[in-house]
Design a protein that fits this description.
The complex is a heterodimer.
Chain A (H helix, E strand, L loop, with lengths): L1 E8 L5 H4 L10 H5 L10 H4 L5 E4 L11 H8 L4 E4 L4 H10 L3 E3 L12 E5 L4 E4 L5 E3 L5 H9 L2 H7 L9
Parallel strand pairs in A: 1-2, 2-3, 3-4
Antiparallel strand pairs in A: 1-5, 5-6, 6-7
Chain B lengths: L4 H10 L9 E5 L2 E5 H13 L12 E4 L9 H16 L3 E2 L8 H7 L8 E5 L12 E4 L2 H10 L1 E5 L2 E8 L8 H12 L7 E6 L1 H4 L3 H9 L8 E4 L3 H10 L17 E6 L6 E3 L7 E3 L10 E4 L1 H4 L2 H11 L9 E4 L4 H9 L2 H7 L3 E2 L20 E4 L15 E4 L2 H10 L9
Parallel strand pairs in B: 2-3, 2-5, 3-4, 5-6, 8-9, 8-11, 9-10, 14-15, 14-17, 15-16, 17-18
Antiparallel strand pairs in B: 1-7, 12-13
Helix pairs in contact in B: 2-3, 2-5, 6-8, 11-13, 11-14
Classes of the chains: A alpha/beta, B alpha/beta.
The structure holds iron/sulfur cluster.
Chain lengths: ~170, ~425
């Protein structure tokens, strides 16, 4: 069970503001985590508490394919990101590296900054403990559940080194 | 069953007779691209895949260090070194500084991407290759690492949105203006999880370079890929680059589209995208009176020889505005040499521009033109997010090479027809 405070973001949060291009020659996730959202809010890193949750509006993670974007969020202690939609490369990167993400239509308007949120990652049930409202996230397709279940794409691939294969 | 080009390419690479939008497939890749920044993370992940020592096929893997090269600092040099050593040990295709170019300009030029191929790259603008009828999409570093090991990638088959451009281009309108206009209409998430298929009379009239420019920015509308029909222009471009074989796929007439959006070329003037989203577009004529500090002409969007010819055409025999810095970056070594032979570089230098070796450099705020507080830049690149090219208060205005050159001369955002 994930339980923490809400950090609220608007729509079209791009990967350049999640982690600026100038830091993309750093590959140590903990080093990167020091610069998360620096251009949007330089005080974010000082105030964010491990285990808190990002609730954003549509199209979270648009822009560059930099995998360091979900990586540095994970390293900064972001327990999950909840949004109505994710940009597709961010979406797959998050699944591949094991950053929990949840898609719920119009979710952003039901959460305010610093409200208390609880997420059951198993069922996708998400509650706003401050208002009592609860929401059901869209379930992941079966294939993605397998990747998540394996603990990310690297583990999944390790199990099938001959090829991922298709069911005919 | 009727399918779109995108669906046909995915079905062929998944070894399936047909695929439907929404279906998740594991597809064989024809080429896996990475730059030094995505490769450095992919190398780490590759090392964690149990049983993977050698890549699946080194001839189908290409590494292009272009973002911070020639290395801008020690940190970047360390990254580039590690990537170089890995690429050479694994015998991957590797393009070193001096032989390289900006990845998405280089790969079509070298004939490494061809129609009908399935290409993934650790860079969001991998979608550029749809300009010559390939399925190409950006992925993350873990996807790259797994594709290095297995030669496969998991993909959700996108539904296709058809964009039809009717009529003829107006003066000074280029592919860049058409894609800026389309992104403005669609919004930055208007094509999320979808393919964009570009069709219509105006598309048939475009050069291959302009199609590559348009496909490059499909991601700016959130699309998974952008794709163009393969015609005689495409085939002559591809045959000029390589004698390796390729496959032409065409959308079936009865193929199902999620949506068809029709644009009339009458409505499309030269465009500019205001800060801080590529969808924040206006006609240049409505830009107002905005003084600028810098102009960048280059990148994977507009760093081709055709772009440099347009810029040089406007700058020839003139000087740029005394308050403006203008940085011109040919996309590849081959383009640099061609521009040298044609006298374009001389035109730029005489107009007081800086001419750089190929690099992404300023496009991602790396080096070679980082912006200071409050500075304004007109750029032929593809993104104008907050802080993208430097200080968080700096502003990027995206435009075509013609608009960028006219603005460099005037010192403010200007229509090329007014110069
Ligand atoms: S030129 Fe810019 S957009 Fe293109 S690959 Fe380089 S950094 Fe990315």
């Amino acid at each position: 069970m994930i339980k923490g405070s809400v950090w609220k973001f608007g729509r079209d949060i791009d990967t350049d503001v999640i982690i600026a291009g100038r830091y993309c020659n750093i590959s140590d996730p903990d080093e990167l985590a020091k610069h998360v959202f620096e251009d949007l809010d330089p005080t974010f890193v000082g105030r964010f508490v491990q285990g808190d949750v990002i609730v954003a509006d549509a199209n979270f993670g648009c822009g560059s394919s930099r995998e360091v974007a979900p990586l540095c969020l994970k390293a900064a202690g972001v327990a999950a990101v909840v949004a109505p939609s994710f940009a597709r490369i961010f979406y797959r990167n998050a699944i591949n590296i094991g950053l929990p993400i949840f898609e719920i239509p119009s979710v952003a308007k039901f959460f305010e900054q610093r409200q208390s949120i609880q997420i059951d990652p198993g069922t996708g049930m998400i509650s706003n403990l401050s208002t009592g409202a609860s929401f059901q996230a869209a379930p992941f397709p079966e294939f993605m559940q397998k990747i998540i279940g394996a603990g990310g794409l690297v583990n999944y691939a390790s199990e099938r080194i001959g090829g991922l294969g298709n069911e005919k | 069953m009727a399918m779109t080009m995108t669906e046909k390419i995915l079905a062929a690479h998944a070894g399936l007779p047909q695929v439907r939008p929404g279906q998740i497939v594991n597809a064989k890749v024809d080429l896996v691209l990475a730059n030094e920044l995505s490769a450095i993370v992919a190398i780490e992940e590759f090392g964690k895949i149990r049983g993977a020592e050698k890549v699946f096929d080194p001839h189908k893997i290409v590494i292009v260090p272009d973002h911070f090269t020639p290395n801008k600092d020690i940190q970047s040099a360390q990254v580039a070194k590690k990537v170089r050593e890995f690429a050479l040990t694994q015998q991957m295709l590797y393009y070193e500084v001096g032989r390289m170019g900006i990845e998405h300009v280089l790969l079509p030029e070298q004939g490494l991407v061809r129609p009908g191929m399935l290409v993934i790259g650790g860079d969001s603008h991998t979608c550029t290759y749809g300009g010559i009828g390939a399925f190409a999409t950006g992925v993350g570093s873990t996807d790259v690492a797994v594709a290095w090991a297995l030669g496969e990638v998991w993909l959700k088959v996108p539904s296709t949105i058809r964009l039809e451009f009717l009529g003829k281009k107006q003066p000074w309108v280029s592919g860049k203006d058409m894609i800026l206009y389309a992104v403005g209409r669609l919004g930055v998430d208007g094509a999320i999880y979808s393919a964009l298929e570009f069709t219509g009379e105006a598309i048939a009239d475009l050069s291959v370079a302009e199609r590559l420019t348009m496909a490059n920015m499909a991601i700016e509308a959130g699309a998974k890929n952008g794709i163009f029909v393969v015609d005689a222009k495409t085939e002559s471009y591809v045959q000029g680059a390589t004698d390796r074989p390729y496959t032409v796929y065409q959308s079936d007439p009865e193929a199902e589209y999620a949506q068809t959006i029709v644009f009339d070329m009458e409505d499309i003037d030269p465009q500019v995208a205001f800060p801080h989203l590529p969808s924040n577009t206006k006609p240049v004529s409505q830009a107002g009176d905005l003084a600028i500090d810098q102009v960048v002409i280059g990148s994977c969007t507009n760093g081709r020889i055709e772009d440099l010819r347009i810029a040089a055409g406007l700058l020839k025999g003139k000087k740029i505005h005394p308050r403006v810095r203008c940085i011109v970056i040919p996309g590849t070594q081959k383009i640099y040499l061609q521009a040298l032979k044609e006298g374009l570089l001389e035109t730029f230098v005489q107009a007081d521009c800086v001419v750089s070796t190929p690099t992404c450099g300023p496009c991602l705020g790396g080096h070679m033109g980082v912006l200071a507080e409050g500075e304004r830049c007109v750029s032929t690149t593809n993104r104008n997010f907050v802080g993208r090219m430097g200080h968080v208060t700096s502003e990027i205005y995206l435009a075509s090479p013609a608009v960028a050159s006219a603005s460099a001369l005037a010192g403010r955002i200007t229509e090329p027809g007014k110069i």
